[in-house]
Structure formats: structure tokens, C-alpha cells
Amino acid sequence: MKTTNLLLILIFLLINTECKKSDMNQDNSLLMGVWTLTAIQNVKTNQILNYPDSIPKKESITFTDSASVLIFGGVCNEGWGSYSINENKINISPITTTLMLCKNIIWEDYLQNNLENAFMYTIYANQLIIRTTGTFHLIFKKIQ
To answer: What is the CATH classification number for the domain harbouring 114?
Structure first.
């Protein structure tokens, strides 16, 4: 029920918000910084699954402007990769990570596997949506 309500609100905002293309992704510098994963959206069903509050450590990605490095911070592992952007298109190289196992690693898998299938991103306010050809689109909130 919560997921359906969140999805309906998101669709309503997208339809009723008068945003010009220039308002979104105005500047690639908006991408720079630390983003925490707040939800994933199933590519086929559009169902949104929120990141569990019960997991104390949040999944994060950091875009740097030096050498286009992407830093990955998972529940148990950390890593890095590179990225390239062209307007709202994004390409992320395979991410190299440590290989520790722990509880809730499934969220780390969701993040890493879908990042490597990214093709487009949208930033609006403090929200980043990375669209992928994988199983889930990734929804982030900017924290720095």
C-alpha cells in the first residue's frame, strides 16, 4: 500500500510539475557528491521498494570530478569504478569491490549490478534517479 501511494505521488509530481529540460540536469556538477540509495524501482512492474530502515548502514555512491571516478559504499563492501556522462546519458564501468559477505548483502547486489547497467540519469532537487537496463532503476538522495 505504501509503495503504491509513493508511486502515485511520484507519477503525479512528474506529470503536474512544469519542468523544462533546462531545469533538469542543468549542469553535470549537480551529479558530484555523495548519494545514498533510498529505493529501487522494478523496471518491468514499476513497483518501488524502499531501502529498509532496519539496515543501519546505507548504500552510497560518490561521483568525483577528478578522473571521473565513482566510489561505491555498500553494506559490507567498498569499491570504485569510472563513469562517463553526456547530457543525461551515463555509462558506468564495472565496479571493482572487496568481496566480504554479510547480512543484507542483497541490497549491495541490487546497487552494484544495476549501476553497471546504467544508461540515463535525472536529477531533480536532491533526488537522483539512475535508469538501467537491469532489473531495477536506482533512486538516491543527495547527502553531500
So the answer is: 2.40.128.270
CA dihedral 45, 46, 47, 49 (to 10 degrees): 130
pTM value is 0.77
Residue with cell 546505507: 58
> b/e map of 29-47 (b: 16 or more CB within 10 Å)?
ebbebebbbbbbbebeeee
Instruction: Name the residue range of residue 50's domain.
Output: 2-142
Q: Is the pLDDT of residue 89 over 70?
A: yes
CB 26 within 8 A of CB 59: no
Q: How many domains does the chain have?
A: 1
Which among 93, 88, 91 has a CA at the least distance from the CA of 26?
88
CA trace torsion 29, 35, 109, 113 (10° rounding): -20
State the cell numbers at 115: 549501476
Predicted confidence at residue 28, as pLDDT, reads 67
96 in helix, strand or coil?
strand
pLDDT of 55 strictly over 80? yes
C-alpha 129/C-alpha 127 separation (Å) is: 7
